[in-house]
Amino acid sequence: MRGTEALHLRLLRLLRDEGAISRAELADRLQMPRPRLLAELERLVTLGYVAEAGLAASRGGRRSTLVELSPHLRFAAVDLGASSIDVEVVNGRLETVAVYAEVADIRTGPKAILHRVNDLLHKAKVDGAYERLHAVGIGVPGPVSFRDGTPVSPPIMPGWDRFPVRELLTREHGCPAVVDNDVNIMAIGERHGGVAHSVDDFLFVKIGTGIGCGIYLSGEVYRGNDGCAGDIGHIQVDAHGPVCSCGNVGCLEALFSGAALAREATAAARGGASPALAERLAASPTDSVTALDVAQGASEGDVTCIRLIRDGGRRVGGVLAGLVSFANPSMIVIGGGLAQLGHILLAEIRSVVYRRSLPLATGNLPVVLSELGPRAGVAGAAVLATDVAFAEAS
C-alpha cells in the first residue's frame, strides 16, 4: 500500500470509528503537519468521502472546524450462510440503513445466489437506501482466496470453486468488492463492535453448519499464505469417525456441527433414548429433529440432549486446547448457529480448554459467547467494505 493510500485509510477509519473530529485533533492523532492534513482533507472532500460538520466546542480562542465522513457514503454487507442470505446497507459510520434477509440454499450455485444478492441490493436502491454503493463486502461459508476474491474447493458449496465472486460484484455495482470466508468476517465484526473490541489476539470459533476459526494476531486477521488459515473443522478428531463432506474421515465438523448434531439427535429420538426428542420428532413435518430441538430439550433437563451438547463441546474444546498452546490468544469467542446451545456447550469447551492447556496460557483466558450473535457476519463484511473503499480513496 502506497503512503497516500495508507494515510487515507488511517484517516477515514478514524472518522468511521469515532465520528466528527476537528482538524486540529486529526493532525495530532495522525501525527501529521497541519498543512499536509488540510491538503489531504481537501482531496477527500473533492472525492466525496469527507464533509465539514460545523464548529467544535470552544476551548478558548478560535473554534476549530469539525470534519466527518460524508453522509452520502453507502456500503453493502453480505453474509452468505449454508441456508441463508443476510444483506445490510450501511453508512460510513457503519450504521444500518436497510436490512434484507431470506432463506436460500448455497448449493443452488453461485449464479442463483449472487443473482438474489444483486436483486436485494437493487431493491435497497429502489427503496431509497442509496444512490450508489462505494464498496461491497461479502462472506461465504467456505475457503476463500482473499487475494483473488474467489472461493476455493468449498466442501458445502458445489459449483462455487474459483467462481469470480469479487469480479461479478464489482462489475454489477460499479464499485470495489471484497470476498472473505464467513468466519473471518464474523471475527472482524466481533473485533470492531463486539466482545473482542479491545483485544488484539483472539480466536473466533464459528460452530454452525460447519466449524471454522477466525484468527486475530496483533490486531489483524491472519489468513495464512493461501487464505485457508483457521479451517479447524477439518482437523481429524476420530480416526474411526464418519466421512466428512471434505472426503476425509473423522473431522471435527463431521462429528459436531449443525448437521452432525441433528443426525445424532434424530437417531436418539428414534431409538427411544430421549423422550424430549421423541416428542419433537413425532411433531416434525420432516421426520427429523434439529439443533434447536436439542437446545430446547437440554433446557428442559433431558439427559440425552445435555450429553449430546457436552460431547460436542468436549470435541471442540480438545481442538481449541491445542490452538491455545500453539497461539496463546487473549480470548476465545464462540459464535455461529450452535452458539444457541448456550452455557452447557460453553462450560464444556471451557472445562476442556482449561484442563488440557498449559496454566500459563489459560490463567487469563476468557472463553465467551459472541456479543453480536447473528449480526457478526454482516458487521464484519461492512467493516471490510469500508476498508477496501478507504484504501482506494486517492
From TrEMBL:
Belongs to the ROK (NagC/XylR) family. PROSITE patterns: ROK (PS01125). It comes from the Bacteria. This is ROK family protein. It comes from Plantactinospora sonchi. The lineage of its organism: Bacteria, Bacillati, Actinomycetota, Actinomycetes, Micromonosporales. Pfam families: HTH_24, ROK. InterPro entries: ATPase_NBD, ROK, ROK_cs, WH-like_DNA-bd_sf, WH_DNA-bd_sf.
